[in-house]
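Anyone up for a design puzzle?
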């Protein structure tokens, strides 16, 4: 992976031994986090409803307090036990005391409830005691559910950390293989350009994207740029490589590290248009176009609850946290879960906020769409419109099941169109999605900025009843890929 370059292309056994030990240690830590995550997965159950056993226990407790010694006790237990239980539950529902704890079902006949009121000579005391029991059961259930949610989120966060560490350790192994395969050839090709290489650190992700960190210097006073070094490295590796940072920088006679990465096959041109709600001074929508490691790029839109400054703060927080988590290496779903926890546990003014994410791999052209309470997006290809929907709840609501992203392969000329729900809600049509699809299919412009402005103007014709934001990305093959054809 790293170390003093030798003409035979190998690192010393000592150097590789140290790297192997480091990789194994990282593996052990990863396994530890994985085992710890499984501990959190035990014995938790997020429930919003009381079980039949819990409801029967409430009924038995009330009967033990009020029915013992009553002159009707034997008769009620013998002939009306189940009827009394069912009728009492329904009466509590009517008082809206237990509605949030009960599954919807067929309501008992009115005669059954009336019969309970007539035959129970202490029905007022009975319902009062049942109410107290239900309130206590509800509070206990809420505490248990919240603890279960926290355990579930902690489990997934530990799994995510374990996966990141595992990928790092595997990267060390892949780097050793690449070092042995390419170092000698790379040094030879650079030497032809009067560049001396001391170290070569190779990285290769799961998607076969290659990065190289070279410790190099120019020789014999040659004027060599970092870009030229990248081109020479690309010839040696058989891949188009580009310099990260300033490619025009001149190499000197002192060793320095330059970062090269494999040229992406695709590039994006983006456009954005937005409009604030009528009567508001700021938009509650926030967008981001974030470049990530390994030739990935994230298009993000977030809509805060309501409009104005508070909505803006919430959507800004969502986007900023997403940027940080994704850049660190967390998956989109794990990032959304952690952010949702933050909104879920706000002590003051708990709220929800949407998240709309298109994760693009510019190396292979694959796009993953994640939505949390967001409006549909649209993929336009030669006039054909493909809508992209999502069913996950917005941040601030518990996300237990992992929503599978919708995946699409992108090609030359494709357009990704994302918008906040204010754009669709502005349309005066019974089927707003269908109306938007029809407009997009007829839209002839290809410039993403002009396209975003046209879409916003189309929606604004009906009035700005909410903040509106449109984000458009056009996909094109990189110029170097075209030249190789």
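Challenge accepted. My sequence:
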């Amino acid at each position: 992976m790293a170390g003093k370059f030798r003409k035979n292309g190998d690192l010393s056994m000592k150097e590789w031994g140290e790297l192997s030990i480091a990789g194994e240690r990282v593996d052990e830590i990863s396994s530890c986090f994985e085992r710890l995550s499984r501990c959190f997965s035990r014995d938790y159950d997020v429930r919003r409803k009381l079980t039949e056993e819990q409801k029967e226990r409430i009924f038995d407790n009330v009967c033990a307090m009020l029915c013992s010694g009553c002159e009707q006790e034997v008769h009620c237990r013998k002939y009306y036990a189940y009827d009394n239980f069912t009728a009492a539950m329904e009466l509590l529902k009517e008082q809206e005391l237990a509605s949030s704890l009960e599954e919807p079902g067929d309501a008992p006949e009115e005669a059954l409830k009336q019969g309970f009121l007539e035959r129970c000579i202490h029905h007022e005391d009975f319902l009062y005691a049942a109410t107290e029991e239900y309130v206590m059961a509800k509070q206990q259930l809420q505490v248990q559910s919240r603890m279960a949610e926290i355990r579930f989120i902690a489990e997934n966060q530990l799994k995510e950390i374990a996966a990141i560490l595992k990928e790092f350790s595997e990267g060390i192994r892949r780097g050793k293989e690449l070092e042995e395969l390419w170092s000698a050839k790379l040094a030879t090709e650079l030497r032809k350009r009067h560049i001396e290489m001391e170290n070569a650190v190779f990285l290769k992700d799961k998607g076969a994207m290659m990065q190289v960190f070279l410790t190099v210097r120019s020789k014999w006073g040659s004027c060599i740029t970092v870009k030229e070094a990248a081109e020479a490295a690309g010839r040696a590796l058989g891949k188009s490589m580009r310099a990260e940072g300033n490619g025009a920088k001149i190499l000197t006679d002192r060793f320095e590290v330059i970062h090269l990465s494999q040229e992406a096959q695709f590039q994006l041109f983006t456009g954005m248009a937005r409009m604030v709600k009528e009567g508001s001074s700021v938009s509650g929508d926030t967008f981001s176009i974030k470049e990530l490691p390994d030739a990935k790029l994230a298009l993000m839109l977030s809509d805060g609850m309501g409009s104005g400054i508070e909505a803006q703060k919430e959507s800004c927080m969502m986007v900023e946290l997403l940027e940080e988590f994704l850049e660190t290496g967390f998956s989109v779903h794990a990032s959304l879960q952690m952010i949702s926890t933050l909104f879920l546990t706000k002590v003051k003014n708990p709220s929800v906020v949407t998240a709309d994410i298109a994760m693009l791999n510019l190396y292979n052209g694959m796009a993953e769409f994640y939505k949390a309470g967001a409006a549909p997006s649209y993929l336009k290809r030669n006039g054909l419109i493909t809508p992209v929907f999502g069913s996950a709840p917005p941040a601030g609501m518990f996300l237990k099941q992992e929503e599978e992203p919708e995946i699409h392969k992108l090609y030359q000329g494709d357009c990704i169109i994302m918008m906040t729900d204010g754009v669709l809600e502005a349309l005066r049509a019974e089927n707003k999605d269908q109306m938007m699809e029809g407009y997009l299919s007829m839209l002839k412009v290809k410039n993403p900025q002009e396209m975003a402005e046209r879409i916003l103007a189309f929606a604004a014709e009906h009035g700005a009843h909410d903040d509106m934001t449109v984000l458009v990305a056009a996909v094109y093959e990189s110029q170097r890929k075209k030249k190789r054809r």
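A detail worth pointing out: The two ends are 33 Å apart (CA to CA).
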